[in-house]
Amino acid sequence: MKAMSHLAESRAPSGSFDVMRLREDFPILKVKVHGKPLVYLDNGATSQKPQAVIDALHRYYSAENSNIHRGVHYLSEHATTVYEAARGKIRQFINARSDKEIIFVRGTTEAINLVAQCYGRSFLKAGDEIIVSAMEHHSNIVPWQILCEQTGAKLRVIPINHEGELVMEEFRRLLNDKTKFVSITHVSNALGTIVPVKEIVALAHERGVPVMLDGAQAVPHLRVDVQHLGCDFYAFSGHKLFGPTGVGALYGRAELLEKMPPYQGGGDMISLVTFEKTHYNVLPYKFEAGTPNIAEATRVTVRAGQEMTGANFALIVARMARVRGRAMNSRGEPVASAMLMLTPDEPMVMSMNFNNAMVGGDGSFQFANVPPGRYNLQVRPNGMQSASSEFATLKVTVGNDDIDNLIVTTSAGATARGVVMTDDGSVPTFRADQVSIFPQPAEPVSMMFGPGQNRINDDYTFELTSLSDRRLIRANVGGQILTWFLKAVMLDGEDVTDSGIEFTPGRSYDGLQIIFSRQTTDLSGLVSDDRGKPVLDATVVIFPANKDLWTFSSRYVRTARPDTNGKYSIKSLPPSEDYLIIAVQNLEQGQGSDPDFLTRAIEEAKRLSLNEGETKAFDIRLSTLVP
User: Residue 116: pLDDT above 90?
Assistant: First the structure.
């Protein structure tokens, strides 16, 4: 029998296990029963709660209580942010594709009832068959019996053998053209049997039959990946995971949830209500009527030295403190390019009132002399200005004076590896030094990049980690993004220059290519007046002759100032372009890309053709144009 005792042996830590230290986290274990310390073994029914969870619930109701999705005041916005971040955390925990596939429910029982009523009553009819097993909890039997009474469908049961395992041959026999739904436990609550659910899902899907998994007993003990399992629905409860009672989660594939009607009616599950018609809200809110268990869904705390996972952390500092630790990804590797921001978590505090710290090559960070107060600690992967949606929010509290050995763990984002090259496979003549990453759609403006992680190596290869969402990829030199002569960004033979790449967490994207024109042109010369005397206070402006002036931005205009000998130099110009070039005195910063100035400059500018790969000398006389 594949029992939980066997599972526990396979997962036992290799080092020493401090049982007494673990017991200290659970205050109920200090209770004495019949004069002896409590020994609690009924975790299959419900788990006991660590002090961190108890404290977090108390803090929410004493200092943070507010409704969500309804108010514009600080407490409501704060509660909404944390609540939705918890949804993202659950999505990450079971590796669902999207936050909208995570529905908060009261527990596994309500989740199964929701699917039975919303999916079953919509798509099952008399004569259809539903398959369950003989080892199911009542919560995965009775809802389907009710559905059968409502629709005329029939319930079929997979038997178990003397070893406490499902008889898979019988399951294959039960599957037929009348089968319209399968609902199976992942781990038996009575026997501890680990059911081969991936095989069951595959067999059912061969016939187009959706599968729901009861994960109430599995989630506390197994690593659950709903995409790997391939299931259509997955349900579990918080109270078996050391969390509060009255809260759980239902995962459902978005395409199925979209087709299902709401489970209950009320506030938050609607977008518009009139007496004639009600319009339902989008996923996941369509299935979340009324005020939910906000505190229970969001409250988790840890002590200093314990692990925190996410991108936003709330710290309570009792006295002047030093905060230091390491930032790691879920594989245990340093997140060496991240930036951490420490901001006051108080109403009416301006967002610019923050400290930041770059993460070192070994993942270490430190904030010194942090005054007493409550703070948000935010991880910015790749040094980006805003945290990616892949990095969920988790609120934690740390109350000791000096906060040491703090381990901040980000999720396992995607990894991309590639090379910067020319269209003939050679090395570019310019020296690209960084890869730029920014959301799509977006203009490549004012992005912040941390050192190291997005650097281009000497051999023009690069590696990017902790990526998520749809991102555009570019190379840049000295902070200037090279879009002028970028030809394409390719991934597996597909041109993703403008569409960007949808990065799936945990995946590797190898063979990324940033391709430029084969060679660039360098231009230099002397700036002089009409008597041939060098001019030192001029500005040389060069721009493509065939560009629409109304769509100009600064990336299409290059400028240079002469040196002490009147010599100017402009490097890395795109090849095979006709340019207009002009030298102007008293040109202020920004005027060189102003369309009005450029329109007037065309009349006096000289036309210049540049060939691929050449280094060209071009002397220019000072213009009489006044900026």
Answer: yes
